[in-house]
Amino acid sequence: xxxxxxxxxxxxxxxxxxxxxxxxxxxxxxxxxxxxxxxxxxxxxxxxxxxxxxxx
Length: 56
Ligand SMILES: [Zn+2]
What we know:
Elements: E1 17-18, E2 24-32, E3 35-42, E4 48-49
Antiparallel strand pairs: 1-2, 2-3, 3-4
């Protein structure tokens, strides 16, 4: 009765963000001096920001 299939939908590892230019922002993982850095890069204009939310 009212079964909710929680397992049918797994949490997506990659969130999608849109750049102000209309391109898709993709997350990149960089390794810099032994540290892992996450960068967000627009696929279209190659703009990079530290956080995907900075593209708004
Ligand atoms: Zn862009």
